[in-house]
Amino acid sequence: MRVSLPDMGVPPIPFPHAGQSRVEIVIRLQVDIDKHTKSVSFESMPSLQLVGSGTEPSAKTGPALIEAARDAWLAHMESRAKKPASVRQFRTVFDKAAREQGWRTPADFTFQSVTEWIARAQVDSSWSPATVRRNLAVFKGFSRYAAAAEILPRDVLTLATGPEGDGGQGARAATVDEARAIIRHALLREEADRRARSARSLYWLLLFGAGMRFAEPKGLLWSDVHLDEEVPFILWRPEAHKNRRRMEVAVSSEVASALRRIYDGICVGVVSTVGATGFPTEEGICHLKPDGGSALKSRPVFKSCPPPAAFRKDRDLCMIPAADRRGRGFSPHSARKFFATTLTQLGVQSRLVDVLMRHTTGVQGRYVDLPLHDQAHALQGFPKLLPSLVENPLTRVATPPDTTGARHGYPNTNYVPGTDP
Predict the structure, then answer these.
(1) For the chain, which end, N or C, has fewer CB atoms within 10 Å of the first or last residue's CB respectively?
(2) pTM
(3) Which region holds residue 49: left if phi is over 0, alpha if psi is between -120 and 50, else beta?
């Protein structure tokens, strides 16, 4: 049942549905209610109509109030530049719980109801601790917003916590040799197999050599890559990375050179085969014929993105263990951890590491703004990851395919065993 004031533009006021026994309504007028006619009249004001009979709310009364509260919360997340995919996922999780738990008003959203649903889903769907944490974060976010917007009297999930061991073992950092092996394997594959559809070696180089998260290279546009500046850098747009801030982050000379070689080749129209650059430009790199490069700036660097399974496949082919003795996996995030660990081992200050990793937590993240020259200086000692000159197609002049190495399993390359850096 609900109360509405249709002539005054007042939103519906919720009455209890079946199973509830108490509701509080404050009306700043003194009126007499006729219980028999279900109506009330008062001077100079429109009539107050009671809709329903005290049982379950009728579908004719409009959307449930829990949905209105959910929509307001999601709109708030969108206003804070949250990723659209995250907003959609939060809505899916929230709606599933609301449907299964029978939430109709914000008052139904309680600590007990939320924790019961998560506990049941954890058993039924065999959720890992990390999955429990992600889903709990959805409801904690709604609870905080509802309390701040006075939809709920307080944050009902203040005491809600994830299971023990919530963080898990996580991924381990790769070593220099492992990073070189994976990138080299991808290069050799691209030279040997003309069916290669993704520029996997360049993609892996950006993960290991620039500390990017797995999906971030796919969001790069050529207009984000500034290679003609004194210090080459990538301009990160808020929608292109996790911290949602506009940032300029320097890249190493090796990463800049690899990107420059591809960009220049595309602009002048000379990149047409896999063997010329080591990257499958017709498929994996967004490729244009000669046009001065103006149209290229608005296009993504990668037309296709290698799936996570490709990383695991290259890992296995390089005989890198999937997990170490501590149970930590070797995943794409191992590349990002390698980037941070290597900078730390080189003695780079923690704040500089945070800038290069695009972390913005803490006071320093908000107030310390380190220039590109300082960032470039921190990257000077970073180890080279691409193969040596004699086998690296990115740093050699294009030559006719050399098939003499086919018996060693390296067709179309000038690979010389034992020349790794």
Answers:
(1) C
(2) 0.63
(3) beta
